[in-house]
Amino acid sequence: MVEMLVAIAVFMILTVILSGIYVAFNRNQNRANVSQKMVNNLQYVFEIVSRQIRDNSIVDFSSTCPIAGYTDSCILLQREDGSLFAFAHNDQALEYLLINKDAGGAYAIINEPGSSIKFLSPDVNNIKVDLARFYIQPSINPYLQGGSNQQPKVTVALQVVYSGTGNVSSVYNIQTTVSSRIYKR
Fold first, then answer.
1. For the chain, which residues make up each domain, given as ranges?
2. Half-sphere exposure of 75 (CA within 13 A, CB side)
3. Is residue 107's pLDDT more than 80?
4. How many CB atoms are closer than 10 A to CB 155?
5. pLDDT top residue among 52 and 163
6. Distant-in-sequence, close-in-space partners of 54: CB < 8 Å, separation ≥ 6
């Protein structure tokens, strides 16, 4: 009888240990999956933003966002055809915006379907953008006569958090620096 109680106790202890290992493995697997999805999304967004900065002209070199309604950081770019667009941080999201410049020189989002696209957002891909900064060097327009003779470069820095379900919490601080291929005087 005593042998039976000892065997049951040993079996129960082994079951608890193995269950704990299984739960820890599943939790780590979920965390790894979330991290991989976040890294994939971030790489995709950084590739798009980097390509657009390389292939288009920087319009505004100030440290504040000139777009009406956007107080956080943004970068305003111009295509060869003269159309304006921006990448901006607003309300926990990184957005791509089509922009107009009115007669008074103010920038505003074009009021058409598809003129504002969220790349990273809690409602799009469970990624909350806590911080997005676009650091432009030089801080004054190098395209102007007498300006610094420097190729424009932009450092894009993001702090993102996974905002999906479950108890997985992943915070990433990621940045890259891109040099514009467009230089005109």
1. 2-179
2. 26
3. yes
4. 13
5. 52
6. 178, 179, 180, 181
